[in-house]
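Case study 2.
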Amino acid sequence: LIYELNTHIEKTTTERNTAREKVNELAGRLKSVSAAYQRQGEEVLKAKERLERQSKFKEDRRRGEVVSSLFEPYENLKRSIDAMTKAEVDNSHLDGLQLVASSILNAFNGLGLEEIPGVGSKFDPIIHEALMTTQTNDPALKDAVMQVFAAGYRIGDLVLRPAKVIVGMYEEPPAPVEEP
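Prediction:
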């Protein structure tokens, strides 16, 4: 009986060890498949994000092309209004034109058009075109936009027209010379 019991224990131990090895093997395969599935999920997510960025860029570019094609007539309308204002034309004649210009600008804003930051903003050669520099006594105004000659516009990161600006230039005054 003891012999049969020992044989049965050995057989059970062998079966248990075999089952444990099988479980360990299956757990390893599961980890491997799980890791591969996770990597694939991350790759799909990255591809989706990349496609969304490309789609947004293309959409911004399309909107920019639409606005660009209509922007020059809008600028001509603004110049006409300015000329009529300087010529002191009766306001009743200007009101309708100003309403049209405002309506066009609102439509452009709806397409994502925004004016490039002007006076007081930090000069950025990507969005500003420096026409000249001007001396300033305030160190805080170094490389700051001091004056805007022509507003600039962009849609998202797409610059339709850079702002034409004058940029502040600060030079530290020379140290006073001490006399011996």
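The helical segments are 2-86, 91-110.
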